[in-house]
Amino acid sequence: MAYRILLVDDDPIFRESLMTILRKRGFLCDQACDGKEALSKMGNRMPDVVISDIDMPRMGGLDLMKEVRHKAPEVFFIIVTAYASMETAIEALRLGAFDYIIKPFKFDSLILKLNKLIDHKELLLENARLRHEIHQQYDFKHIVGQSPAMMRLFTLIRRISDSDSHLFIVGKQGTGKELIARTIHYHSPRKNSPFLSLNCNAYPEDRIEKELFGYEEKGGYTYPGLFRQADTGTLYLDEITDLPLSAQLKLLRVVEQKEILPDGTSVPVRVNVRIMAATNRDPRKEIEDGHFREDLYFRLNVIHISVPALAERKEDIPLLIDFFIRKLNQSMGKNIRGMSREAQEILKNYAWRGEVRELENIVERAMIFSRRDVLDVRDLPEYLTQKTGPENQNIPPGLSLDEATKKFQYIYIRNMLDKFKGHKGKTARELKISEPTLYRKLQEGTKKRKEKS
Questions:
Q1: Three-state DSSP class for 101?
Q2: How far apart are CA 317 and CA 375, in angstroms?
Q3: Which structural domain, as residue segments, surrounds residue 330?
Q4: Which terminal residue of the chain has fewer beta carbons within 10 Å of its beta carbon, N or C?
C-alpha cells in the first residue's frame, strides 16, 4: 500500500526537495503552501499523513491540525518547526500530533519517524480488523434458535448488553454458556477491552488464587493475574461453584471493594472488571451443600441467565444442523447442501448428554466421512442409528431386578466417564457419589463382565 502524504510548508524549495526524496521511497505526495491551501486539497480525498510546518501565513500548522483531526482523526500529523522550543513541541503532541521534528534536520531522520508512524498506523488497522472479525464472530446471529426458550433468551441478552452489571449463567455443559458471555461482552460498553476466561476446576487449589489475583516474588518475577490482565474488560469464570472456598472469599472482596491483593504483597491493587460467572450445577444446591458462598452468589447474580438444554428446544435442531454445515463448509472447504429429513429426525430424537457441542461434533464427523453433498443416515455414528432397547444396552432378559440395576449402573457410569473423557473426579461429582464409590462400582462391573466371558 502506497501511503499518501501532504507536505505543507511556505518554503517551495524545501517542499520540492522533500517531495523528491519521499517519491523515491514510494510515497504518493502532494503539497500546499499553507493551511488554507492544504484544506482545499483535502476536499476530495484525505491524506494518510500530513507533514506540516508550524509558522505559515493565513493558517499555521497547529490550527490546521486542530481542524483536520476534528473531522478525520485517522489522519496523522508530523509537525515541523524551526524553533527549538519544547513548549511548541509539547503543545503539538497535546493537540494530537504523532511526532515533531526541528529544522534543520536530516531527511533520514524524517524517514525514520515516517516509518515509525506507518508501523503504528498499520498496527491500529490490524487491531481494528481483528476487532471487527471478533464482533462478527460473536454477533447475535451465531446464537441459533427460534424456539420459545431461545426467543426469551435472545430478548434477555439484547436487553442486558448495554448493562455493566455482573451476571450469572446456568446451563448444562455444551449449551453455549461461554458463547453467550462473549456475545454479551462484544455488544457491551467494554467491547474494546479484554475478554478473558478461566475454568475454575482446571487448576489445583494452591494455584488458582495466583492465577486469578497474581503474585509478586521479592526481587523476582511478578505475575499480574487475570484480574489485572482483564482490567476495564470482562472476566468469565466457568464452573464457578468449583472454586475453592478460600478463593471465593477473595473473589467476594474483588466484587465488593473492586481491588485485589496479589500473593506476596500487602498493597491492594484497584481493578475495574465485569465478572460473568457460569456453572452447570444448581447454585442453590451447591450453597446448601456448603460448596458455594451464598453472599458471593447474591453479589454475582445481579443478572441471571438460564441457558435451555437441547431437550427443551428440539425444534431448533434442524436450524443448528444447517448453521453447523454452513460454518464447517467454510473451514473444511466443502460444499455440503444439507441433511436428509430422516437423519434430522434421528438427531431430534436423540438424548443429547453433550448438548450443542455434541451435535456440532456429530455434524462435523458426518461431513468428514460423507461422499455425498447431502448428509444422510449412513453418515451418522452407528450408536445413533441402532435401535434402542435392552439389546442395545446389553442387558439380557431373565436377570433379577438387582442384577439388572447393577448392570444398568455400570453402563451408565461408563457413559458418564466417556462424557468427561475419563476424568473420574468430574464423573463422581456429576453422579453425586464419592470417588471411592465410583471406583468400587467400576470394579464390580468389570469383575462381573470377566466372570461372564
A1: strand
A2: 15
A3: 311-385
A4: C
Locate 408 and state its grid cell. 444398568
- The dihedrals phi and psi of 275, each to the nearest 5 degrees, come to -100, 130
> pLDDT tens digits for 208-225?
999 999 998 776 678 899
d(CA 334, CA 329): 5
- Residue 98's CATH number: 3.40.50.2300
Phi, psi (5° rounding) for residue 399? Answer: -80, 155
DSSP one-letter string for 388-449: PSTTTTT--TT--HHHHHHHHHHHHHHHHHHHTTT-HHHHHHHHTS-HHHHHHHHHHHHHHH
E strand spans, 33-88? 49-53, 76-81
CA–CA distance, 226 with 308 (Å, rounded to integer): 29
Cα 118 to Cα 27: distance, rounded to the nearest angstrom: 11
Quickly tell me which residue has 524524517 as its cell.
110
- Contact status, residue 317 vs residue 359, Cβ threshold 8 Å: yes
Residue 319 grid coordinates: 436450524
Residue 395: inside a domain: no
Amino acid at 261: L
Sequence-ordered alpha helix ranges (H) in 186-244: 205-213, 225-229
If you search the block for the grid coordinates 446464537, which residue do you land on? 143
Based on the domain organization, do 119 and 153 belong to the same domain? no
Mapped onto helix, strand or coil, the DSSP state of residue 347 is helix
| 15 phi, psi to nearest 5 deg | -60, -50
Name the domain boundary from 132, 164, 192.
132
Q: Give yes or no: residues 281 and 335 share one domain.
A: no
Reported as a pLDDT band with limits 50, 70 and 90, residue 402 is confident
Same domain for 189 and 87: no
